[in-house]
Design brief:
Number of strands: 4
Number of domains: 1
Radius of gyration: 18 Å
Oligomer: single chain
Shape: globular
Low-confidence stretches: 1-11, 13-24, 38-59
Distance between the termini: 26 Å
Mean pLDDT: 76
Length: 257
């Protein structure tokens, strides 16, 4: 664990130097290093349901930006139907429709051509889908992101840590992280995000996650399958961010900050 963290620091220093020499997207380099710092803490002890890797991250890193990002990620999980209080299901193992729990993280289960797709009636239409994991990854999206091979964790490809990393890369790619960060304010060290920037971040992520609204009041989504309402998701985000804020306050009280 300690050697891995030190290795990440060394990698980050090298990357920053390389970026400064080549004028190559230094903000992305800093973002990647922050992601490594936040996620490396959970590698040694991924807790199975009901406390998956993202919850561990919330307990171990209280940087304001990542408090907001974790709350936003869980909001997307709620929209995709994999994250809610009281469940014993692990969102990182969840298949669409049936909520079947996959048994192996070695790869996206539907990269196997012989896998059986979960199906259900959507309205009057019998529909099958390969969406799997906390963010309901489709194989083509997962394989595209996975092929980037940028700082993926060792071990099983579809692990919770790798699912989280893939989601963070997608949120960075579509601009949602930038929108959240630019709409962030701090009061006594506690972060919040304004509603307009939250809506923009949701709309930017809507082409990736079909359950997200493209704009306030949108109920058809990017693919016409229906979405969670922006009002509901704003409420979910506020609830999840309040949990992050409470954890920050508790951690600060323990350390006497």
């Amino acid at each position: 664990m300690e050697s891995k963290t030190l290795r990440n620091v060394s990698i980050c220093s090298t990357l920053r130097l390389w970026a400064s020499i080549h004028s190559t997207r230094p903000r992305l380099i800093v973002l990647t290093c922050l992601l490594l710092s936040a996620i490396a803490l959970v590698r040694a002890a991924v807790i199975e349901p009901p406390k998956p890797a993202i919850a561990q991250m919330a307990l171990t890193n209280n940087v304001p930006q990542w408090m907001i990002v974790r709350a936003f990620m869980r909001t997307v999980f709620v929209a995709e139907g994999t994250w809610y209080e009281g469940t014993k299901r692990n969102p990182y193992r969840t298949e669409v429709f049936t909520y079947n729990q996959i048994g192996d993280y070695s790869d996206h289960p539907h990269n196997n051509p012989n896998s059986r797709l979960p199906c259900a009636y959507i309205g009057s239409e019998w529909t099958c889908s390969a969406a799997t994991g906390a963010a309901q990854w489709m194989p083509d999206t997962w394989n595209r992101v996975r092929a980037l091979k940028r700082f993926w964790f060792d071990g099983k490809a579809f692990s919770p840590e790798n699912q989280d990393m893939a989601m963070l890369y997608e949120l960075e790619r579509v601009g949602s992280l930038r929108s959240l960060f630019s709409g962030m304010s701090l009061k006594n060290g506690v972060p919040s995000v304004n509603r307009r920037n939250f809506d923009v971040a949701m709309s930017q992520a809507a082409p990736v996650w079909a359950s997200l609204p493209r704009f306030r009041g949108d109920d058809s989504g990017a693919y016409g399958q229906g979405t969670r309402s922006s009002e509901k998701l704003w409420g979910v985000f506020q609830t999840e961010l309040a949990k992050e804020q409470q954890q920050w306050k508790s951690a600060s009280a323990k350390t006497g900050q």
